[in-house]
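Why do we bother with holo predictions? Because pocket geometry can differ from the apo form. Keep that in mind while you read this record for manganese (II) ion.
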Amino acid sequence: MPATVHPIHPAFAAEVSGIDMHEAVAPADVAAIEAAIDKYAVLIFRDQEITDAQQMAFSLNFGALENARGGNVTKPGDFRLASGMNDVSNLGKDHKPLARDSRQRLFNLGNMLWHSDSSFRAIPAKYSLLSARIVNPKGGDTEFADMRAAYDALDEETRREIADYLCEHSLMYSRGALGFLDYSDEEKELFKPVRQRLVRAHPVTGRKSLYLSSHAGTILGMPMPEARILLRDLTEHATQPRFVYIHKWKRNDLVMWDNRQTMHRGRRYDESQPRDVRRTTVAGDAPTVAQEVAA
Ligand code: OGA
Ligand code: MN
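The structure, written out:
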């Protein structure tokens, strides 16, 4: 059955049917999914009861997977999932909810701030694909904001003002906003700020979008408090209900989004119960501004 696409929100987001991730996806369907994500930015696939290997195989249709190293404070021996999978659950290696004071858990709470995945990397992520294996009984929605619609709705003066602004993004800025401030020297090196344009254009459609993220902590050439106020104002603008799609998870949903044109955040849930969501991330192909790229 060929892929069909049904919009589910006035600004963006669509549901895709006719795809079975247990099987190789036909090139025409890969092309249809790429065209749909360029247009809708967030795609929902229902009833995909898949393994990690099948999730990675499906994701590889859209490009190389991002190397997950560097995006968290989980120690090498503590990963629950195989390399290639980002563990976005609240579970430890023993598959039980992490302790309330677990450093890994507290760091991962940063996913509940509006962000774009890997904006803290010099080459930020292209797509993310999040698969719900266990849905939490209470809360845990994921919200998405359409950053193209948010850009389009800015007044002309603001657009002109911010057109060439460069921000610095770091995991230490997003976590710092939560009061998470202690890092080892190795983590400080890993989390060094990178530069990102505040306004970026989509490489296929040319549409401009606001490239915001809670990882953004400074604007070059601007005093920090002034930059932070502007970033907060823009974030408040971009996350108005009219630009937001709220995804209420069902088991075996897979949601795929374009990090170059959206932000997202998780919402709170009952952390005494499991929420097992697993992400694969398709690597981006270029920095948003020329800079030294760490290996
Ligand atoms: C992610 C993420 C939010 C959530 O997977 O990148 O931020 O709701 N997830 O789990
Ligand atoms: Mn994320």
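The chain has eight helices and 15 strands.
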